[in-house]
Write a structure and sequence with these properties.
This protein has about 325 residues and is α+β, with helices and mostly antiparallel strands. It folds into two domains: about 180 residues, Naphthalene 1,2-dioxygenase Alpha Subunit, Chain A, domain 1 (Alpha-Beta Complex), CATH 3.90.380; about 120 residues, Rieske [2Fe-2S] iron-sulphur domain (Rieske Iron-sulfur Protein), CATH 2.102.10. About 20% of the residues lie in helices and about 30% in strands. The strands form four sheets. The chain has a seven-stranded antiparallel beta sheet. A hairpin with a 2-residue loop joins β14 and β15. The protein is globular and about 70 Å long. It starts with 16 loop residues before the first helix and ends with a helix. Bound molecules: FE2/S2 (inorganic) cluster and fe (ii) ion. Fe (ii) ion (FE2) binds next to loops.
């Protein structure tokens, strides 16, 4: 149904109905997001029992991060009796007890006991244990999936070098912030995926990133854009992991953006700031992220109005400046078909 030529010089962009049709939007929940890996936290900010919702607004899957001697795991946070949410606030404990009718589970999700169930046939069975999510850690960042189309290492083995020790050591989550954008989630992502617009849209950023040196490298399920400063040093690296995760590497640390679809024309973007060296915070490409965000949102919200036009359906790509956007559209088309 969606077809993006693999030759960028021949290809046309996604048809506008992808950004405007509520049925297609709903289908992307199962076809793209339920099969994706989602960021669910960071090792340093996870309590022993830590409830999380996997991709709120789209998947809304209640999960529970559990920290044990053997490490962190991610299990369902839904009681197997009658679906009460088990843990509502971060806490600690040796077992999990449902506060609805007292069913108890071990920290690895095994059902331990249930009051008033004598004589119940085929009970307990493995259906009474809490399912475990596919789960992975990279550089301290924690990822979980509902039914992933690929294994985590398969998705990230070609970009994992970005998360090696010196880069991810000593990161502290210092701030979180949410932006609400009146546009389709993919419009927000595809804007992020090209630096083409920087000289036009981001005057301030343009003065610290040398546009001529801006490069895009494509990976299996990711892309990395690199901007150099006038001395030829890396000013910023922008990593995108399909379908909705952005890791922005700056001299001071990492700014993480999670793009959360809410409706066909509404998106929440969660910013998480992980600082390693705060003396560098006000310098270079990672200095004024709020201004850059406002400039991007204004453009993306206008595009949402534009894709509704009867006169617009599909566009074309710049072969030198829009490889990331083309690659992103190809992955969307693959997942949706
Ligand atoms: S719903 Fe958990 S014990 Fe009944
Ligand atoms: Fe931008």
């Amino acid at each position: 149904m969606f077809d993006i030529d693999k030759d960028i010089k021949k290809a046309r962009t996604l048809p506008s109905e992808f950004y405007t049709d509520a049925k297609i939007f709903a289908a992307s929940g199962e076809k793209i997001f339920a099969r994706s890996w989602q960021l669910v936290g960071h090792t340093d900010s996870v309590e022993q029992l830590h409830p999380k919702t996997i991709l709120p607004g789209m998947l809304n899957e209640p999960a529970l991060l559990v920290r044990t001697q053997e490490g962190i795991r991610c299990i369902s946070n839904v009681c197997t009796h009658r679906a009460m949410l088990l843990v509502e606030e971060p806490c600690s404990g040796d077992l999990i007890r449902c506060r609805y009718h007292g069913r108890r589970f071990s920290l690895d999700g095994r059902m331990l006991s249930m009051p008033e169930f004598d004589g119940v046939e085929n009970f307990p069975s493995e259906n009474d244990d809490l399912p475990e999510f596919p789960f992975a850690e990279m550089g301290g960042f924690l990822f979980a999936a509902v039914s992933p189309s690929v294994k985590f290492w398969e998705m990230t083995d070609d970009i994992a070098w970005l998360f090696d020790r010196p880069t991810t050591e000593g990161l502290r989550l210092t701030a979180t912030r949410e932006y609400e954008v009146n546009a389709h989630w993919a419009l927000y992502c595809e804007n992020y995926l090209e630096g083409f617009h920087i000289p036009y849209v981001h005057q301030g950023l343009n003065s610290v990133v040398n546009y001529g040196s801006y490069t895009t490298d494509l990976y299996k399920y990711a892309s990395i854009q690199t901007g150099l400063d006038d001395n030829g040093d890396v000013a910023a690296r922008y990593l995108f992991i399909f379908p909705n995760l952005m890791f922005n590497f700056y001299p001071w640390g990492i700014s993480v953006n999670i793009v959360r679809p809410v409706a066909v024309d509404r998106t929440i973007v969660e910013f998480q700031t992980f600082v390693r060296d705060e003396t560098l915070l006000e310098k270079g490409a990672g200095a004024d992220l709020h201004t850059v965000e406002m400039e991007d949102e204004a453009v993306v919200e206008n595009v949402q109005k534009g894709v509704r036009s009867r006169f617009y359906d599909r566009g074309r790509y710049s072969p030198t400046r829009e490889q990331g956007t083309h690659h992103f559209h190809r992955m969307i088309a693959d997942a949706m078909n």
